Amino acid sequence: MAFVQFSQVSLAFGDRDILKNVTINLQTGSKVALTGANGAGKSTLIKVLAGLQNPDSGDRAVQKDCRIVYLPQSGLTHHGCTLIEEADKAFQFGYDLQNEIDKIGEQLQQGSGNTNALVERQADLIQKLDDSGWHRRQTLAESVLLGLGFSRSDFEKKTEQFSGGWQMRIALSKALMQNPDILLLDEPTNYLDIEARSWLEEFLQNYKGGFLLVSHDRYFLDVTINEVYELFNGDLKRYPGNFSHYEKVREVELQTLINAYEQQQQEINKLEDFITRFGYKATKAAQAQEYQKKLDKMVRIEIPESLKKIHFTFPPAPHAGRLVLRMNGICKSYDGNFNVLDNLELTLENGQRLVVAGRNGAGKSTLLRIIAEEDKKFTGEIIPGAGVKIGYFSQDNAETIKGSQTILEYLESVAPLELIPKLRDMLGAFLFRGDDVYKSLDVLSGGEKSRIALLQLLLSPVNLLVLDEPTNHLDIHSKDVLLKALKDFGGSVIFVSHDRGFIEQLATNVLELKPGKFKYIPGDYIYYQEQLAKEMDNEGGESTLLAAAAKASSATSPNGDSPRNAPATSGGETKLSWEEQKKLEAERRKKEKELQKLENALLELEAKKDELSAKMADPAVYSNGEKAKAVQRELDEVLAKIAETEEQWMLNADQ
Question: Could you give the CA distance from residue 6 to residue 46 in angstroms, rounded to a whole number?
Answer without folding.
Answer: 11
